[in-house]
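Quick entry, no commentary yet.
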Amino acid sequence: MTMEESTLNYVLMRPRCLFFKKLTRDFTVTNRILFQTDAVCVEYFSAAHAKLALLFSPQLRGDLSGNPDQGVRLLQQGFDVLAFKINNEDWFQSVPANLLKALANLILRRRYQETVAYGTALGAYAAAAFSGWFNPQRALLISPQFSVDDGFALSQDCTFFICYDPHSSGQQAVEKLRALIPDGKLRLITVPFAGEPSGTCLMEAGLLAQLEHQVLAQAAVGDWTFRRAKAGSVAYLFHLGTALLQRNKRNTALGVTAKALQINPQIGSLHARQAAILAQLGKHQAAIAAWQTAIALEPDNPEWHYQLSLGLLHLDRVSEALNASSHVMQLVTDNHGFWGYHSNLLWRNGQTEASLAAILTALELDPTNAHYHAHKSGMLQALARLDDAILAASDALALAPDDQALLAHLNALRLKKQQSLPVPVLPPMVNLDQLLAPWR
């Protein structure tokens, strides 16, 4: 017997009094950590049930303690739980193969009547990839991701129930798994417009526990009520709205977004979605109000401040647009596009020195942008720094040699130097028509 098997034998086979105990409504749960590193924790939760659930749970927020919510529900449904928890995105490869082998041998000796596997996203991948080690009777995979590696060992006897959104990018992973799963061993459960992972939508609709029980405890999907319950899910309404926008059905998408906001008005991304649609429909004042509500809920989102600024600029409210852009610059300092736009607003607001400083920052981040060099030239010209303006215009033309406006500007600057003639100041060449397109 290896050291891993010896240790796990002690954990699984010793009298229950050695375990930490926790009382639930009608049974006592004992738990013990079987394996732990900074990245992975394998923990066993036992209530002396006759069935075992292997739960693969990515905990990407970093906390590996305790039984995940799915594990709590599985205990209540009559399963002991062996929880594999990771806090990284390494596809559960931080779980060593010798540990899997030791666990599989000890589970066999424990003689559970039935073993099932369950996971979502990366966890669904692991439930499939490690099924060959444990040979569960059934596996519930919610929105599985997919990656082939040396640790992939698919069971040939397990029946796989895959729940996914057929309109999402997860369709590709399902097709790859479908090619590996033996004939007759696959059951597909589609939840259109649930998004990824679909479990979020199912939980909001009050269906996740039902699905877990039907697949893992009853071995079949019975009366499936997603069609009736989906309207209560914000995730479903959000992803349906996305699909409607892709089909250019803006008014319908706006109505769907309004329904989602009735369910939960505290989600900033819903107000942002509403704002974007209103802008596309030409309802600019309402769009600005929606952006302001989104920002009030999530004030650290720079994109929303930027969109608010664009909306205000579209209505020629330049000083307010500049104020919104200033919030962007407080949140993001390494985006040359934001600096270029901010410089443009400063110039429009009569702050030429500040505009020059901002465009110089943009050039530090993107030194090969001809528009920024041209804008720099215009600001230097406005500040009566003619020689520097000529150099900046020359740099711009070197990067965009076919730009006739730049060539005319450079020639005019050179002529002014020779003859001291007035030259119109070249305005910033940031393409505001393109930036403001969503507001038109």
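second:
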Amino acid sequence: QPSQTGWSLINTYAISLNDCHIPRLKTITNPCSRNLSIGMPLASNIWVGLFRRLPFIIRDLDCENKETIENEINMKLLKYKGLYSNHFAIQEIEAWMVADIDCFKKVYKYNKHECLTRLISKIQYISVPEKISCHPKISEHLEKFARSCALRYRKTIEGVQLLKEVNPDTVSVKCPAFKELRKDLWERIEFPNEK
């Protein structure tokens, strides 16, 4: 199934560790390919994944200047110029979660999601998550809303669970930067894509 194949690739990059060096890579099992590897991030919000020895760098944009960030990454990886792909989660990876609000129903079961999804639906620009302001960030909204609903939202626990449940087709419609990342991944794996 195209969407699940594309998404299982994305999920492998959703790791959150603080480290500022180019990663040693570890091969992981993936139903799509035996050639997918992941490693430590270049920084707390930059992840590197290898697919068929072609690195993908995914970073939360966090309302920073995209061009400046790309230049910084390109300078750090100068000797690898042309051998990797830069992509951004705009403004952060939580935009992908709120783009498919149904994922909250799967993680916060037994109707516990109702309070949370009601509050999320009131965020300005929720129908276009990449336009949501960074003041506060989407992750900060989620943490605050979860607390007010007597729930928890932590990037490294519920965040990972939510990413596993997100429908990439829905996210692609609402998040153009995600759609570009997905398209780039599909081209690298030569996956048949609807034009």
